[in-house]
Design a protein that fits this description.
Blueprint (H helix, E strand, L loop, with lengths): L14 H20 L17 H30 L4 H21 L1 H12 L6 H5 L2 H8 L8 H19 L5 H16 L3 H24 L14 H6 L1 H12 L1 H8 L5 H11 L9 H29 L5 H27 L7 H24 L3 H8 L4 H4 L5 H5 L25
Helix pairs in contact: 1-2, 1-14, 1-15, 1-16, 2-7, 2-11, 2-14, 3-7, 3-17, 4-15, 8-12, 9-14, 11-12, 13-14, 15-16
C-alpha cells in the first residue's frame, strides 16, 4: 500500500490588485506630463503653454493614484509576511524597494536635478553643480526624492509591519481579535447602503488622521535631513492600514471589491468636483472640505479596486508583462518627462498634441529601456528592479509576445489529455 503526500495549496495571485497597481503606474506618466502644462504647477522647463484642464487632470489623478499604491503596499506586505520570516521579508523589501530607490535617486533623479539647475540659471558643468550649495540642498532638503517620495514613505511602513509581526506571538489573542474586527467590518459594509456608510467612516478616519498630524508641533518640518515631514509620512498611512486589514480578512476584501452599480457615478462625481481644502477657508469650512476630499479619495480608490476585480481578474501574459514593466515605468518616466518637456518648449504645436506626444514618447522610451536593458542585463535588473531573474525571463513573452502574439490553437487534434496532475506555479 502506498500513500501520496498532498501537494501544498497553490498561492493565490491577486491579478486584479496587481493589475490596478500596474496600470496606475503607467497612468502616472500622464499625471506628470500634465504638470508641464498645468497653471497651478509652473514647470521649470519654461514652457509657456498652459491650460486649466491640466490642473483638473493632475489634481484628479492625485486623488487616487498614490493612495491606491499604499493600499496595495499594505495588502501585499501581509501576504509576504504570511509566508516569509522577518529577515526574508526585510531583505525582499530592501531589494524591491530600497535598491531601486537608491539606484534611481543617484542616476535619473540627479540628471533631472542637474537640468533643473541649468534651466534655473546655474553656470558650469556637472562638476560645478556637484560642488555647489544647490547640490547639497537637494540632499539635505529632501528634494532628491522627486516622485520617489512614495517609496521613501513606504519603507518605514514595511519596517513597522515586520516589527508588529515579530513582536506579537502567532497564537496571541490580539491577532485573533484583529482578524475578528476586520471580519466584522467587512460584514458591516457588505451591503449597498452599509458600504456608503463605510465610505463615510473611512473618510472620517482619514480626516482625523490629517487633522491630528497637523496639530503636532513641527509636523511640517523634516523628521531628519533629507527625509520627510511627519505630516507627509503619516498622511497616506490609513490606506496602508486598510490594505493590511483587507489581506487579513478575505471577508473584508470581498466587501471592498464587490461591484456596486452606483460606484461609477460616485467616482465620476468625485473626479469632476475634486473637493480640496485651501488656506483661505475658515477652520470649519476647511475641515468640511478635507472630509469631502477624503471621501472623494476613498470613493475613487475603491472604485478602481472594484473595477479591476470585475474586469481584470483573469491574469495572463499581458497582466504579467504589465506588472513587470510597471516598476520601470514608475522609476524612469519622471526624468524623461522633463527631458522631452524641455525639447517641446521650442515647438509651437497645439497644447493637446504636445501633451500627447510628451506622454507617449516618455512611456515608449521607458518601455524600450525595460525591454532591451532591464529584462536582459542582470546588474541593471538588480539595481532598478530588485530582481535577479533574467534567465527566467527568457521563457516569458515580452511586449510583442504578450500583446500581439496569436493565442495557441486549442482546437481539434492539438488538444491532448493530461496524464497527471497539473503543475501550478502561481506568483504573488
Amino acid at each position: 500500500m502506498t500513500t501520496q503526500t498532498a501537494a501544498p495549496p497553490a498561492r493565490k495571485h491577486y491579478h486584479d490588485i496587481d493589475g490596478a497597481r500596474s496600470v496606475l503606474m503607467f497612468l502616472s506618466v500622464a499625471l506628470h506630463a500634465g504638470t508641464v502644462y498645468a497653471p497651478a504647477r509652473p514647470w521649470i522647463t519654461g514652457n509657456t503653454d498652459r491650460a486649466e484642464f491640466f490642473d483638473w487632470l493632475i489634481f484628479g489623478f492625485h486623488l487616487f493614484i498614490t493612495p491606491t499604491f499604499f493600499f496595495v503596499g499594505g495588502f501585499f506586505a501581509v501576504l509576504l509576511l504570511s509566508r516569509r520570516s522577518a529577515g526574508d521579508f526585510l531583505w525582499n523589501r530592501f531589494l524591491r524597494t530600497a535598491v531601486p530607490l537608491i539606484g534611481v535617486a543617484l542616476s535619473f533623479n540627479m540628471i533631472e536635478h542637474y537640468l533643473r539647475w541649468v534651466d534655473a540659471g546655474g553656470q558650469g558643468g556637472a562638476a560645478q553643480w556637484i560642488g555647489s550649495p544647490d547640490f547639497f540642498e537637494i540632499w539635505i532638503g529632501g528634494t532628491w526624492q522627486l516622485h520617489l517620495w512614495f517609496l521613501v514613505s513606504l519603507i518605514p511602513m514595511f519596517v513597522l509591519a515586520v516589527a508588529v509581526q515579530s513582536a506579537i506571538p502567532k497564537n496571541a489573542k490580539i491577532r485573533h481579535l484583529a482578524v475578528s474586527l476586520c471580519n466584522r467590518f467587512g460584514a458591516l459594509i457588505a451591503g449597498t447602503l452599509p458600504f456608503a456608510f463605510g465610505l463615510i467612516l473611512l473618510a472620517a478616519a482619514n480626516t482625523a488622521n490629517y487633522a491630528s498630524a497637523s496639530l503636532l508641533p513641527g509636523s511640517y518640518d523634516l523628521i531628519a535631513p533629507g527625509f520627510q515631514s511627519w505630516y507627509k509620512l503619516t498622511g497616506e498611512f490609513p490606506f496602508f492600514v486598510i490594505g493590511v486589514m483587507a489581506a487579513l480578512s478575505p471577508r473584508l476584501l470581498a466587501a471592498l471589491v464587490q461591484w456596486r452599480w452606483w460606484m461609477p457615478f460616485a467616482a465620476a462625481a468625485a473626479l469632476y468636483f475634486q473637493p480640496y481644502a485651501n488656506p483661505e477657508q475658515s477652520f470649519f469650512v476647511s475641515i468640511a472640505m478635507l472630509f469631502l476630499n477624503q471621501l472623494a479619495i476613498w470613493t475613487l480608490v475603491l472604485f478602481i479596486l472594484q473595477f479591476f476585480h470585475r474586469f481584470f481578474n483573469e491574469g495572463g501574459p499581458r497582466t504579467t508583462w504589465l506588472a513587470d514593466c510597471a516598476l520601470s515605468m514608475y522609476l524612469f518616466h519622471h526624468c524623461f518627462i522633463y527631458i522631452f518637456g524641455r525639447l517641446l518648449t521650442g515647438v509651437d504645436w497645439p497644447i493637446g498634441i504636445e501633451f500627447a506626444v510628451l506622454t507617449v514618447t516618455s512611456a515608449v522610451t521607458v518601455i524600450v529601456i525595460h525591454e532591451r536593458i532591464v529584462r536582459r542585463v542582470a546588474i541593471i535588473r538588480l539595481l532598478f528592479n530588485g530582481k535577479t531573474d533574467v534567465d527566467q525571463l527568457r521563457s516569458q513573452p515580452g511586449l510583442i509576445g504578450a500583446f500581439f502574439a496569436k493565442p495557441a490553437n486549442l482546437t481539434g487534434k492539438n488538444l491532448t489529455k493530461p496524464t497527471g496532475p497539473a503543475k501550478l506555479s502561481p506568483k504573488v
